[in-house]
Amino acid sequence: MESERTEPSLAELLEEISGLRDLFQRRLLEDKVKGRQLDELSKQLEGSRGGFGEQLLGPVFRSVLLVVDRIRSLVPPEGDQALESIADELLEILRRQGVRAVPEESSFDPRLHEAVRSEPVDGHAHGDVLDVLRPGYLLGAQLLRPAQVVVASSKVDQPR
């Protein structure tokens, strides 16, 4: 009879297995939640690092862009390969650091463009970008400087 008392009953074993199964499922669920939280924290950390770098480097990159503008303004109409090469190299350095040109959009976007002038033109909708006078640049999602553009305006009938 003593051997019967030391061996657990089938009901006790099933209850213990059920308890272990519940514990296992709770731990799996906790692991999934922790995994999602770690992923979210990693994304937040990466975002804050990127934003911090953009804040620190933005002014430096804007200054380099002004140097590029100055170099390009010195290029005579017939061209100067050396000056153009220096400007291109500086832009390549910025590109490797994540700076990219504002995409040339067909219509004016006040978040990316600065309208310097508007011209009434046939064949273009009001707000179409006609010309880019000075390119704009982005560092990640941060606008370093807007593109200076000429936009189309509606032709207004002139009084006779």
TrEMBL record:
<keyword id="KW-0963">Cytoplasm</keyword>
<comment type="subunit">
    <text>Homodimer.</text>
</comment>
<dbReference type="GO" id="GO:0000774">
    <property type="term" value="F:adenyl-nucleotide exchange factor activity"/>
</dbReference>
<dbReference type="GO" id="GO:0051082">
    <property type="term" value="F:unfolded protein binding"/>
</dbReference>
<protein>
    <recommendedName>
        <fullName>Protein GrpE</fullName>
    </recommendedName>
</protein>
<dbReference type="GO" id="GO:0051087">
    <property type="term" value="F:protein-folding chaperone binding"/>
</dbReference>
<dbReference type="GO" id="GO:0042803">
    <property type="term" value="F:protein homodimerization activity"/>
</dbReference>
<dbReference type="Pfam" id="PF01025">
    <property type="entry name" value="GrpE"/>
</dbReference>
<keyword id="KW-0143">Chaperone</keyword>
<dbReference type="InterPro" id="IPR009012">
    <property type="entry name" value="GrpE_head"/>
</dbReference>
<keyword id="KW-0346">Stress response</keyword>
<comment type="function">
    <text>Participates actively in the response to hyperosmotic and heat shock by preventing the aggregation of stress-denatured proteins, in association with DnaK and GrpE. It is the nucleotide exchange factor for DnaK and may function as a thermosensor. Unfolded proteins bind initially to DnaJ; upon interaction with the DnaJ-bound protein, DnaK hydrolyzes its bound ATP, resulting in the formation of a stable complex. GrpE releases ADP from DnaK; ATP binding to DnaK triggers the release of the substrate protein, thus completing the reaction cycle.</text>
</comment>
<dbReference type="InterPro" id="IPR000740">
    <property type="entry name" value="GrpE"/>
</dbReference>
<comment type="similarity">
    <text>Belongs to the GrpE family.</text>
</comment>
<dbReference type="GO" id="GO:0005737">
    <property type="term" value="C:cytoplasm"/>
</dbReference>
<dbReference type="GO" id="GO:0006457">
    <property type="term" value="P:protein folding"/>
</dbReference>
